[in-house]
Design goal:
The protein has helices at about 1-15, 85-90, 195-200; strands at about 25-30, 35-40, 45-50, 55-60, 65-75, 105-115, 120-130, 130-145, 155-165, 175-190. By secondary structure, it is mainly beta. The protein has a single domain (about 20-205), classed as Lipocalin, CATH 2.40.128. The protein is elongated, with a radius of gyration of 22 Å.
């Protein structure tokens, strides 16, 4: 009997010392506060800038264990803002972004690794112009807290990446438009609450 008791005692100790399961939670991007900006060289004179607003997407993560981080983002190409309607139409044409044939670009993460405090590298597949190619995002978690206006749990991120436009079938005008495209992403995500009752509870600071 004593041996049985000792065995049970050891099992209790082992179960108590086992690592906790990561608290991975679902979040949704806030399209009002999420933007994708691109920079590309214009004939050596300047960096042309463009912005994609109204970015949609979902992510899941545990800030104490980034191994469970998942990201799925959709970028509506037709929302492009570049400051000139004629140049915008050219960029959305079949020569470039081909927004009529594929109106949404999509990035889906495939793996992630921590690269520093609140920093990580997110590798994923970017699908653009019906071509998928690997892109690596350098991501930083800026803040994870309650929004002071909505009281909803909100996570803010900044990210950068570099891609070669030729990888996606855009090789025209090499003497005018740079080959490398720099991306900068500013994003806010709100913790997902699938019901009105849970949303109300999530907005209540007493439920922290």
């Amino acid at each position: 009997m004593n041996r049985v008791r000792k065995l049970l005692f050891c099992l209790v100790l082992l179960s108590g010392s086992a690592p906790a399961v990561a608290a991975v939670e679902p979040w949704r991007l806030d399209p009002v506060h999420t933007r994708v900006l691109f920079r590309v060289e214009h004939a050596g004179f300047s960096q042309a800038l463009g912005i994609f607003p109204d970015v949609q997407g979902e992510l899941s993560f545990d800030p104490d264990d980034w191994s469970g981080f998942r990201l799925d983002v959709q970028i509506p190409l037709g929302k492009l803002e570049i400051g000139d309607s004629g140049w915008r139409d050219k960029l959305l044409s079949s020569t470039w972004l081909d927004a009529q044939d594929q109106p949404v670009a999509r990035f889906v993460s495939t793996r992630v690794e921590a690269s520093g405090e609140d920093q990580l590298k997110v590798t994923g597949e970017l699908t653009l112009r019906n071509v998928s190619h690997e892109v690596i995002l350098d991501v930083r978690l800026n803040k994870l807290a309650r929004n002071p206006l909505t009281f909803r749990r909100t996570a803010g991120f900044s990210a950068t990446a570099v891609l070669d436009r030729r990888d996606f079938g855009m090789a025209e005008w090499p003497n005018v438009v740079g080959q490398r495209v720099q991306l900068e992403i500013q994003a806010e995500a709100v913790r997902y609450t699938p019901s009105p009752d849970q949303e109300k509870e999530d907005a209540d600071p007493q439920h922290d």
